[in-house]
Amino acid sequence: MTVTYSYEALPVAEWFRRNREIAGFQNPARAMYQTVRELVENSLDATEPYGILPNIIVRISAVDETRGWFSIYVEDNGVGIPGNEIPNVFGRVFYSSKYKIKQHRGVFGLGLKMVVLYAQSTTNRPIAVRSASVRSDKIYEYKLMIDTTKNEPIIVDVREFENKYKWHGTAVKVTIEGNWLNSKKRIEEYLKRTAIISPYSEIYFSGPDMELALKRRTTKMPPPPKEGLPHPKSVDVDTVKQMIADNRGATLIELLMNNFDRVGEGLAKAFLEWAGLSPTRKAGGLTQEEIVHLVEKMKTYDGWLRPRADWLSPAGPELLEVGAKSILGAEAVFAVTRKPSSYSGHPFIVEAAIAWGGQIPLVDKPILLRYAN
């Protein structure tokens, strides 16, 4: 018996469409929750790092109850998206403006593209986007889908309007197959937990049978995270190969000084001597084995300075206390933010708060809310 095999290259957008459960879109209830979460967190990323107090509107409406189709609308007052970039931001997988190291909720906006892919695979309706950048004279509106074979945006419709009132932000509307009854509680809890950690946000939600208004409790915001270069201990071989490809004419000492966090001339020279590499050697002349050797030495060298902590944006004790008291109705809250630390070149900060009394229900075991970014 002869067995034949057929192979084909699978475009990245098509791969994610076929494996949507990896991103949390495995069933209608989970997909509805995940859609709200992805859009809200994109809204927070468009406001918080830029010092804008978030105003976020979320609406879920039934479109066709017999089919289980719902529209989800999320609007924010963030920095907006330049009109010419909107198709790529929403219609191209692995397209992102996030290049350097900085705290944010996503890396390539992948969850946003999964929303588009899930919508077109269940209802075959395009995503509608309206956006205007800060001080933009125009508002741009697009209806978009993704060509999964080419990983390119399909522009169904595009319009532009005069921005008379200087509005800025982004509004997104998507129609998906969902399950409101089974996702209702989870969506409500997610929005409340978001308000706990960001009490400077104003979030208004309306669903088929409920409304939720989470008022802003403070105008104080955490310091925005700064962009930085990667720490020498945090990179892999592929990353260093890309750096070398972008800096082929640079010497090894120049490569280290210009592409890594907190690496000055003296430190770079000391490391290279320890690693048995010439500081004046051209990075582009390294063999594959030498690149692997370089990365291995970078990961084991103990002389590097600790990574900067200003890549991160901790909430701080005051905001944690305000959020817990306002949303949980606690009688007392105590919060702490620990000093920055690092693991394998990645900085992190641990924050914790304990709340009790007031409107918190009596339970046998503590209610634990965990956040990670």
Automatic annotation (TrEMBL):
UniProt keyword Nucleotide-binding present: yes
KW Disulfide bond (keyword) present: no
One Pfam family of this chain: HATPase_c
GO molecular function, one term: ATP binding
Keywords: ATP-binding, DNA-binding, Isomerase, Nucleotide-binding, Topoisomerase
One GO process term, biological-process aspect: DNA topological change
CDD domains attached to this UniProt entry: HATPase_TopVIB-like (cd16933)
E.C. designation(s): 5.99.1.3
Histidine kinase/HSP90-like ATPase domain ranges (all copies): 27-142
SUPFAM superfamilies registered for this protein in UniProt: ATPase domain of HSP90 chaperone/DNA topoisomerase II/histidine kinase (SSF55874), Ribosomal protein S5 domain 2-like (SSF54211), S13-like H2TH domain (SSF46946)
Highest rank taxon of the organism: Archaea
Membrane-spanning ranges: none
InterPro entries, alphabetized: HATPase_C_sf, HATPase_dom, Ribosomal_Su5_D2-typ_SF, Ribosomal_uS13-like_H2TH, Ribsml_uS5_D2-typ_fold_subgr, TopoVI_B_transducer
PANTHER family reported in the protein's UniProt record: DNA TOPOISOMERASE 6 SUBUNIT B
Subunit description: Homodimer. Heterotetramer of two Top6A and two Top6B chains.
Protein name: Type II DNA topoisomerase VI, subunit B
Species for this entry: Thermoproteus tenax (strain ATCC 35583 / DSM 2078 / JCM 9277 / NBRC 100435 / Kra 1)
Taxonomic lineage: Archaea, Thermoproteota, Thermoprotei, Thermoproteales, Thermoproteaceae
